[in-house]
Amino acid sequence: MPGNLDQHWVADATRIRTELGFAERVPVDDAIRRTVSWERAHPPTVPTAVIDYAAEDAAIVKATAHRDG
Question: What is the pTM of this model?
Fold first, then answer.
């Protein structure tokens, strides 16, 4: 797999909240409910046979093992 996964990433929204006054317009629980509802009403148009879930799972295991290794 190309790329380097050996760095740790930390994200913090403090600066955008303090300097620009950012705040979510919708509470997180409501946003998740709305998203799930929309996803159910608009299923993917890509045939699921095209998606190789086993290969994706294997890639996650490999990346995790490399990181935790």
Answer: 0.45
Contact 55/61 with Cβ under 8 angstroms? no
Cβ atoms of residues 66 and 5 within 8 Å: yes
CA distance 10 to 4: 16
**Own/partner pairs for 33-41, CB < 8 Å, 24+ apart?**
none
Q: Write the DSSP string, 7-62.
A: S------HHHHHHH----SS-HHHHHHHHHHHHHHS--SS-GGGS-HHHHHHHHHH
Q: How is the chain split into domains, by residue range?
A: 14-68
| Angle ∠(30,32,38) on CA atoms, nearest 5 | 100
Q: Is the pLDDT of residue 65 over 80?
A: yes
